[in-house]
Design brief:
Blueprint (H helix, E strand, L loop, with lengths): L8 H6 L7 E4 L3 E5 L9 E5 L11 H21 L4 E5 L15 E6 L15 H15 L2
Antiparallel strand pairs: 1-2, 2-3, 3-5, 4-5
Helix pairs in contact: 2-3
This protein binds adenosine monophosphate.
């Protein structure tokens, strides 16, 4: 498997070198809005530990990601008045992975509404700001 690339875009987000719409951070994980959401509220959870994908991440770091994904999922149900949650994680090009720092997609779902195909369109900054604000409020309970 290819080695972890420290210059991937999510590593740059973690280092604060490029901006993002952050919704949550703790010692081990970081969560922010996907810029090309497949549904309103589409959030990405990443480990702080460098990991390309499921194949090289440590079990401990993956567990931290899972814990944060659950927090985001519960908050997203409330923030987006959702009926369900889709979690997705892609590993290696054959799976559809395009950014090589492990990320878990957390997508709030509404009954009968299909997900957009990946990378359909870049969301408005205002909408991303609004979605992040709603999630942050829901995370506070
Ligand atoms: P994948 O590697 O296929 O699991 O998905 C990568 C995801 O990252 C896609 O859903 C993109 O829309 C998203 N993405 C790419 N660049 C950024 C960025 N700078 N900020 C937030 N999301 C991003």
């Amino acid at each position: 498997m290819t080695a972890y690339d420290t210059n991937n875009i999510f590593a740059k987000i973690l280092r604060g070198e490029i901006p993002c719409h952050k919704v949550y951070e703790d010692e081990h994980t970081f969560a922010f809005m996907d810029i090309m959401p497949r549904c309103p509220g589409h959030t990405l959870v990443i480990p702080k530990e460098p990991a390309r994908n499921i194949l090289d991440i440590s079990p401990e770091s993956l567990a931290h990601v899972a814990r944060t994904a659950k927090k985001i999922a519960v908050a997203a149900m409330k923030a987006f008045n959702a009926d369900g949650i889709t979690l997705q994680q892609f590993s290696e090009p054959a799976s559809g992975q395009v950014v090589y720092h492990l990320h878990m997609h957390v997508m709030p779902r509404v009954e009968g509404v299909m997900l957009l195909p990946p990378a359909t369109r870049k969301e408005d900054v205002k909408a991303l700001e609004d979605h992040a604000t709603r999630l942050i409020a829901a995370l506070k309970g």
